[in-house]
Design goal:
Number of helices: 14
Radius of gyration: 24 Å
Shape: globular
CATH superfamily of the largest domain: P-loop containing nucleotide triphosphate hydrolases
Strand content: 5-15%
Helix content: 55-70%
Strand order of the largest sheet: 3-2-4-1-5-6-7
Distance between the termini: 40 Å
Structural class: alpha/beta
CATH class of the largest domain: Alpha Beta
Largest sheet: 7 strands, parallel
Number of strands: 7
Bound molecules: guanosine-5'-triphosphate, magnesium ion
């Protein structure tokens, strides 16, 4: 092919690329418009796009998010955590319906770290949110499938933004409190609700103190029938335990209550407490502060994750890392020396 032909061909390719981009932009504009009217299908499709691992979809989801950015951030974000089976979904159903009765639109997003291993508790969650699932003012989205918790957290945060743009003014994030996921959820919400089960005096075990320190409201669930008394005792001991924690800078006194979704005892009190928390953080400007801190936190975290991912996935480094692993297992080098040497080589190779 002559030089002229080559030039003509690359010009043609450039034109095609520009025309493709225009087409994408046009379809994104339409998408944005219908999503802003609250169209559920556009919202669901938008979230699916965020969850896609295809490179060409990344480009589209970035365009979509950028276009929607001015319409995000206006919701009240509530995180609900607790061990499996504590009653999160059942409670969300009742809280959600209550919010809707008061004129709100509620989106429920789930983060379930176990869904990567099993098929997740999607079905269980939907059946425990029967009424909410079919309510026009509610939108329920199960946990996205991702091979990393970081990926799930990013998708959940971005899904929240899409829901906000679609007019949902209350976003509830449900997460199973079994690991790191509850910390991640704490870092993306305005009000963090911790559900606890009454045990035989051991309710403070098995749940990390750190999570209790993060909670804005604590509720002991299943306070009914033969469990009622134990729940009340648990409430008292949790209350005295959290008094020992250092006060938080937002000067909020964490309420501890008991509730039951079976006989609906304590549900109104719970609603009142979370609402009081919202008023407290909004009136004193704490909500704005929280969100600023959260944005900077997620910026730093994503930056670190992406840099680490990009560097550690370079072909030659993958080989070197594998060799070092073998050397460590054969006791030929200490893990720290191996890491040090690798970092030195990475610095010379990529940062000089
Ligand atoms: N007795 C009693 N049972 C309850 C109450 N709330 C929920 N349950 C039951 O507890 C079980 C678990 O409830 P879920 O709402 O699915 O709990 P979850 O925390 O969402 O569970 P995962 O999503 O699997 O972590 C269900 O069988 C509920 O019917 C309650 O207030 N009292
Ligand atoms: Mg659940």
């Amino acid at each position: 092919m002559s030089e002229q032909d080559n030039k003509a061909q690359s010009e043609e390719q450039a034109r095609e690329r520009i025309s493709d981009l225009r087409k994408i932009e046009l379809s994104i504009n339409q998408w944005v418009e219908s999503l802003l009217t609250g169209d559920r299908l556009s919202l669901a499709k938008g979230i699916t796009l965020l969850e896609s691992t295809r490179i060409e979809d990344h480009e589209k989801s970035t365009l979509l998010l950028n276009a929607l950015l001015p319409h995000t951030g206006k919701s009240w974000r509530i995180g609900i955590t607790g061990v499996p089976g504590v009653g999160k979904s059942t409670l969300i159903e009742q809280l959600g319906l209550n919010f809707i009765q008061n004129g709100h639109k509620v989106a429920v997003l789930a983060i379930d770290p176990s869904s990567r291993l099993s098929a997740g508790s999607i079905l269980g969650d939907k059946t425990r949110m029967n009424e909410l699932a079919v309510n026009d003012s509610a939108f329920i989205r199960p946990s996205p499938a991702s091979d990393s918790l970081g990926g799930v957290a990013r998708m959940t945060r971005e899904s929240m933004m899409l829901c906000e743009a679609a007019g949902y003014d209350i976003i509830i994030v449900e997460t199973v409190g079994v690991g790191q996921s509850e910390t991640e959820v704490h870092d993306m919400v305005d009000t963090f609700l911790l559900l606890m089960l009454a045990g035989a005096g051991d309710e403070l075990q098995g749940i990390k103190r750190g999570i209790m320190e993060m909670a804005d409201v604590i509720a002991v669930t299943k306070a009914d029938t033969e469990n009622l008394q134990r729940a009340q005792q648990a409430r008292t001991s949790i209350s005295s335990a959290i008094h020992l924690f250092a006060g938080n800078e937002e000067q909020w006194v964490v309420p501890v209550i008991t509730c039951s979704t079976v006989n609906e005892d304590g549900i109104n009190e719970l609603l009142h407490k979370v609402e009081s928390h919202r008023i407290h953080i909004e009136s004193a400007g704490f909500k704005t502060e929280r969100r600023k801190k959260q944005n900077l936190f997620w910026f730093k975290k994503s930056l670190e994750e992406q840099i680490i991912h990009d560097i550690l996935n370079k072909e030659d480094l993958i080989n070197e890392i594998e060799q070092q692993k073998i050397a460590i297992l054969q006791n030929k080098i200490s893990p720290f020396t191996a890491a040090n040497e690798l970092v030195k080589r990475i610095k010379i190779k990529y940062f000089n």
